[in-house]
Structures
1.
Amino acid sequence: MDDKDRFISAYREFRESVDLEKQAGLPDLNHLVWCLLAGMPNVPADEEDNADAPIKAIDQRVAILKAVFVEVNGHEDDSFLDEALSLYDEAAKLAKLLIEEAGEAA
């Protein structure tokens, strides 16, 4: 299975775990950062064994989380979705910064 297929599989697996009938408010930044660092949802980069894998995993997680968030909240207005997607981007930046700082401290 190639990377694209593994990513789509990870997306589908996560999507199936989400109640698409529930409405959600704006995501909590701290909770998002924790999820990204804790490895939720599982993504293909988690299985890679190279120095770039943790950063790649963050990007894959954010892509999946954003897609599912928009799917669940697609009925909301664009400003709400834009604000939420910005929170996902901010969480990714913070998670990557923490990963880089941890690497420097090691």
2.
Amino acid sequence: MEDKERVVSQTKKWINEVIIGCNFCPFAAKVVKQQSIYYQVENSTASNICLDAFLQEMIRLDEDASIETSFLIFPNSFADFDDYLDLVNLAEKLLFDKGYEGVYQVASFHPLYQFEGAQLDDAANYTNRSAYPMLHLLREISIDKALENFKSPENIPDSNINFAREKGLVYMKLLRDSCL
């Protein structure tokens, strides 16, 4: 299997096993079933090329309404979580500078994700710990539509944190690692 295919396959497995399997995102199963997710693998380690790839994903979403959401995956870069957070900040600035604020939203996932104020070994971090560093682009209008019929969406993060902590660090790590 080619590297790109392997990376996409592992990412899909992570989405199915962790995100959908743990119900971390109650809206993910629908887009998976509809096959309306686009996966782009960027192998560059240069930040400017990775940011250009991010811009290209926003343009792709502009041009193809059949794509509901896009994952931009970085298997060879941003292994350091602080470097990744710098990328997230630059991506959000680019989104704003290019006039996409309110059109798209960025969700961040990383193998070493750590919520601010959380301990490194907090199982709750696994709600955002992915197989690879990645940026997830979502359509704001789709988020708004999904939330219209969802009772208490503000409870989703706390519910996810509680679930992960109840399952425990070992379970959450094994579950994520089984996707690799």
3.
Amino acid sequence: MDILISPSILASDFSDLGNEAVRMEKAGADWLHIDVMDGHFVPNITLGPPIVKALRKRTNLYFDVHLMISHPHKYVEEFAKAGADIITFHTECDSNIDETIDLIHSFGCKAGLAIKPGTPAKDVFRYLEKIEMVLVMTVEPGFGGQSFMADTCPKLTEIYNECKAKNLSIHLQVDGGISEKTVAVAAAAGANCFVAGSAVFGSPDPEEAIKVIRTIAEDSFLLDF
């Protein structure tokens, strides 16, 4: 499975989002990770569909929309119409999971399920046949710049093995503290899609940062250290 780098706009310059998105596209990013927070599911507020719609006009990057909100079902249509390509929401949310996955697909988007660091891997098992991605949070969701939690990585391997047993090929994404120093551990555990915030947006050379993270991930993927 291809290695994908999805820079998180949570680490971008919010006063210049359009140009920041273009900068990531030119730097070789595969996706753009768009963090949506409602101030209820997580203790932070970020952005909504109008900003996604505005960004869609500036870049052809694949929009990786991560809904860290209590009632994702209510907002799927708006984000899909704004230009989302894949919409990921949390198993811990208050919406019906099956109905929300079906609604995402009804608008032609891919669907992903996310789990917080304290949520067991098995919570996503029954949905694996219905989704295109699982996101394992490697920090507590809500704020950027946190330290990578390596003890969450065994869950990636559990999910990878479950997918393999079911003959499924879906993306396994990690989000939180990903950099050239931490990506190898996540890749070795089975992740192929990496959300990197500060390590890319904060780099003086984001193109080089993406190349380094990608190379390390490719070299480490499913490697038994």
4.
Amino acid sequence: MTIDLKNMDLKELKKLQKDAAKAIENFEDRKRQEALAAAREAVGEFGFKLEELVTGSGKKPKTKSVPKYAHPENSAKTWTGKGRRPAWVVAHVDGGGSLEDLAI
């Protein structure tokens, strides 16, 4: 396919450029999908799922910790008991309260 670029006006050249960019993007997406399908098939032959190998040898993803403590006036504010204490927990304990008062 030969395109005579010298005889095209600016509008035609810009359209050609846009169409070429879109074709390249579609080509890359198509090839990416083909590679992914081939990888899934190859891994499946060994009894694995691709996602298991990519995320770290079949390890389960980390789950979010369950909150153990809640703000006494705003139950939307919670704390799991892990990590740094939120300011509202520190204020409650410093004010004479106990962690058990905030337990859910």
